[in-house]
Amino acid sequence: MSFIMKLRWFFKERWKYYVLAIGLLIGVNLLATIPPKMIGNTIDHIRSGNLTVTTLNHTVLLLVGLAVLLYIMAYVWITTLFGNSALVEKVLRGRLLAHLTNMTPAFFQRNSTGQLMALATNDVLAIGQTSGYGVMTLVSTIVGASVVIIMMVSLISFKLMIAALIPLPFLAFVISKLGQKVRVRFLAAQASFGKMNDHALESISGIRVIRSYVQEDNDLTAFDQVTSEVMNKNKRVSILNALFQPLTSLIVGLSYSIGIGYGSYLVFHNEISLGQLVSFNIYLGMLIWPMISFGEFINVLQRGSASADRLDTALTQKADIVDVDKPVVVDLPKRIEMKDLSFTYPTANHPSLAHVSFELERGQTLGIVGRTGSGKSTLLKQLLRQFPIPPEKLLISDVPIEQIALHQVKSWVAYVPQEHLLLSKSIRDNIALGKHTASPDEIARAVEMASFTQDIEQMPEGLATIVGENGVMLSGGQKQRLAIARALLINSEILLLDDSLSAVDARTESRILQNIRKERADKTTLISTHRLSAVSHANWILVLDEGRIIEEGTHEQLMQFGGWYREQWDRQQMEASLDE
Ligand code: ATP
Ligand code: MG
């Protein structure tokens, strides 16, 4: 029942197709009852000696005609019904992806990639099966069984029907008990399938590290354990499935014995004819399929609703960042102001930012430096609105960021993350990620600003070179400059560079920074870095330590102050001169 509720929207939308398929399915079941009756009649004619060639011909022709008609009807209902299951799978996958794109990092910390992949594959498949094959088995059971029973009663004998069907309720009872177990075991199997996905993903993407630490065997052993678990859990499901089949044979066998035994008795006492007994046994045979169907239905339904539950759990998780009802419209981010902001990651127990305040006018540059783990990336990420923050702590043009529409904030910001993400597409498509329509000139400009032109000229196919999964065929510095070109292409109001020049040499770095300063003179830029030369030109510099600002000022002021910044600067200058 809960399955139907969860897919109500789909059944509502496609009800016409379901009516057509179910109607035809009922028709097929009804028509299929005619041949046994005709065969029974023919036998009675033979027995009484009044079978003529004409009636026999008629019968044979009718039987052939019926078979053809049934074939066509079956073709139509099968394609219609299973077309529905393919469609529901497609729609659900689309919904899932749309949902995932709306989710913030907190969601992905709770749900692993492998589990999400399991949802998109196995679970969606199970739901599709229930809405196609499941519907078919349900209709077959109800219609098949009731039609056969009606024929038995009206054409043959009520007494005989009751006697032969005595074992059936027992079957129904056992099947419903087994069904509940199937559900529990199937949920467990799906969960370990998700774990296996995770492991496979990590092994493949981490293959280089695994090899360099000679961990292949260990990894294989660990994977073997995971796959064994998947196998065992699936085995436990199939054991239950295997229990259904013999059970139906057993019950059908019992029914047959009663049918033949008690039926012969009735023929003997002239209550029914021999032909009726033959028809009755054919009808009994026709009950096998509805009974198997019923078992299958329970099975598929349990799996489908287990999967629908799993999918629902993922789909109903709300993003923790949503637009306010009436967003304030801000046309330009003229000022960015942080007011005593403290921030703790949802999964952490220590704040990663504590009492941070700064002001930044449009066109200015903010530098953020500090030891590793001091909160630089965390500070930059606040402008991406990935995590909820206390209200009125971060203002853009004096409007709290939480009151501005999400898409508006996102349209202002270009972000070059510390861990670059490249798609396995061409260099051109990777650069044009934020602006698919960019002209070759625009791309060339962005590439030039990121000091990436020469590298591209040396690539086998220039801009059309495919970079491989997450840019495997680029060097660290090339990946960084590609990511910078991508950000510069959209010429955004606010640019966030998170340690984005760490893998290029000092000279390239200063060339890129010069380009950025020139091109973005009236735009705002925030730069976090370990190399202080990257921010010495900034209008204001924050030095963070354990999420707090320990020093701040311009380069000159910080040099005069003589604290951490001064110390680092001197050391880095000395190292640089030694390198030369
Ligand atoms: P680095 O110079 O190494 O890039 P950083 O200054 O950018 O360091 P952050 O990445 O901002 O440092 O991390 C600050 C603190 O927040 C660290 O203690 C880190 O463990 C914690 N942290 C970062 N990301 C998360 C997260 N997603 N969940 C929980 N804690 C996090
Ligand atoms: Mg960082």
Automatic annotation (TrEMBL):
Q: Does the keyword Aminoacyl-tRNA synthetase apply?
A: no
ABC transmembrane type-1 domain mapped to chain residues: 19-303
Q: Which InterPro entries match?
A: AAA+_ATPase (IPR003593), ABC1_TM_dom (IPR011527), ABC1_TM_sf (IPR036640), ABC_transporter-like_ATP-bd (IPR003439), ABC_transporter-like_CS (IPR017871), P-loop_NTPase (IPR027417), Type_1_exporter (IPR039421)
Q: List GO molecular-function terms, semicolon-separated.
A: ABC-type oligopeptide transporter activity; ATP binding; ATP hydrolysis activity
Give residue ranges for domain ABC transporter: 336-571
| Record field: transmembrane | 15-34, 55-78, 142-175, 243-268, 280-301
Q: Which PROSITE patterns match?
A: ABC_TM1F, ABC_TRANSPORTER_1, ABC_TRANSPORTER_2
Q: Which CDD domains match?
A: ABC_6TM_TmrB_like (cd18541)
How does the entry describe its membrane topology? Multi-pass membrane protein
Its keywords, alphabetically, are: ATP-binding, Cell membrane, Membrane, Nucleotide-binding, Transmembrane, Transmembrane helix, Transport
Annotated localization: Cell membrane
GO CC annotations?
plasma membrane
Recorded hits in PANTHER family, A to Z, give: ATP-BINDING CASSETTE SUB-FAMILY B MEMBER 10, MITOCHONDRIAL, ATP-DEPENDENT PERMEASE MDL1, MITOCHONDRIAL
Query: What is the name of this protein?
Result: ATP-binding cassette domain-containing protein
**The species this protein was found in:** Paenibacillus silvestris
User: What does UniProt list as this organism's lineage?
Assistant: Bacteria, Bacillati, Bacillota, Bacilli, Bacillales
